[in-house]
């Protein structure tokens, strides 16, 4: 019987990729936020396979500002390039932010 044996070549547990860069012609690195041992969100960096640079670039998210339609407060959020802009902040509409 056929079994799905597809392997994940890359670590997909990263909470939020915020940058991909190569320094001094050396190795590619990905910068990402994730939870540390104390369950706090921290910045991490990791060497990556150059063949997967495109993958991490697609996953990369940028920090944006917007004004909430409901409460009028400014809020910050991360989004990927092709995701739509949220109009309401985390408190007014928590459901729109899914990870
Ligand atoms: Zn709001």
From TrEMBL:
<protein>
    <submittedName>
        <fullName>Uncharacterized protein</fullName>
    </submittedName>
</protein>
């Amino acid at each position: 019987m056929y079994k799905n044996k597809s392997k994940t070549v890359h670590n997909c547990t990263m909470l939020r990729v915020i940058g991909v860069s190569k320094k001094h012609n050396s190795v590619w690195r990905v910068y990402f936020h994730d939870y540390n041992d104390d369950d706090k969100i921290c910045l991490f960096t990791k060497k990556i396979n150059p063949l997967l640079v495109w993958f991490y670039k697609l996953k990369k998210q940028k920090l944006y500002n917007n004004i909430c339609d409901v409460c009028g407060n400014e809020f910050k959020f991360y989004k990927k390039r092709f995701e739509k802009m949220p109009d309401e902040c985390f408190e007014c509409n928590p459901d729109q932010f899914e990870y």
